[in-house]
Amino acid sequence: MRLHLGSLIMLLWFAGLSFIIVATVFASPAIDYRLIVIGSLVPVIEMVLEGPWVLHSLIAPVLVMGFVMVAFQGKRLKQRKWLGVPIGMFFYLFLDRAWTNADLFWWPVSGFQIDKADVPTWEQPALLISMEAVGLLAAIYGVVKYRIYEKENMKLFLRTGRLQRQMMQGN
Fold first, then answer.
1. Domain-wise residue ranges, the chain
2. Which residues of 114-149 are buried (b: 16+ CB within 10 A; e: fewer)?
3. pLDDT tens digits, 53-91
4. pTM
5. H or E segment at 77?
6. How many CB atoms lie under 10 A from the CB of residue 41?
């Protein structure tokens, strides 16, 4: 089994940055940020299973987004909630540099064969540690900025994935 250690270790890189970028850009208290984080970690599953493939291509989050829209058709609040998964998956593609390998990123449009030797990796220990530190700092920044450390805010976040509306207005 071929294991890309770098993509497995970088959980904070993906989770922390996806959370803070989406919270800052969308500034919506209605998004389930837990699902953003989960979506940003879903493609890591492939790294345990012989390396990147479908979840590292653009088609994966597009299909998940389509599924969410069809499955919850007419249920706008459920659509909005579950769109966090594909949004997180899109951020994973960006943060993992999957877009630097056109054959992988555009699979299957670019053909069905994926040369795994050309997959971007993060194998330098110093780079991995630095990136994880950035992800940790982003997560800490989000906890402080949105006061998730306060009891009521933490309860809201853990129960619903939401942030207090007042915290979002400061963006």
1. 5-165
2. beeeebbebeeeeebeebbeebeebbeebbebbebe
3. 788 889 999 999 999 999 999 999 899 899 999 999 999
4. 0.83
5. helix 76-82
6. 17
